[in-house]
Amino acid sequence: MTQIKTHVHAGDKVLVLAGKDRGKEGKVLQVHLKKQRALVQGVNLVKKAVRPTEESPEGGVSELEASIHVSNLKVVEAAAKKEAK
């Protein structure tokens, strides 16, 4: 099985190169290697209907980040890598 690699890692600060959020910067929250997509804080926001629950009894519409393809991202500042022992 081949190992999937990407230039984007969780914790990196990235710049969006294409799409409706072109020019925005944000921190990478998660990376999905198989799908080659990443969640970036404050980028590609979508609205989602939320049912009322005990935690949020009013329910309603919430705004959250959707994933964006890694080819549309450029690393501005890499996260600190863990030191090898």
Query: What is the overall number of helices?
Result: 0
Strand fraction band? 35-45%
What does the largest sheet look like?
5 strands, antiparallel
Order of helices and strands: EEEEEEE
Strand order of the largest sheet: 6-3-2-1-7
Radius of gyration, Cα only, in angstroms?
Answer: 16 Å
Name the structural class: mainly beta
Low-confidence stretches: none
Number of strands: 7
Mean pLDDT: 90
Overall 3D geometry? elongated
Report the span from N to C terminus: 27 Å
Query: What does the oligomeric state look like here?
Result: single chain
General description of the model:
- The protein has 85 residues and is mainly β.
- The chain is built from no helices and 7 strands.
- The chain has strands spanning 13-16, 25-32, 37-40, 45-50, 60-65, 68-69, 73-77.
- The chain has a 5-stranded antiparallel beta sheet with strand order 6-3-2-1-7, with no helix packed on it. It has a two-stranded antiparallel sheet with strand order 4-5.
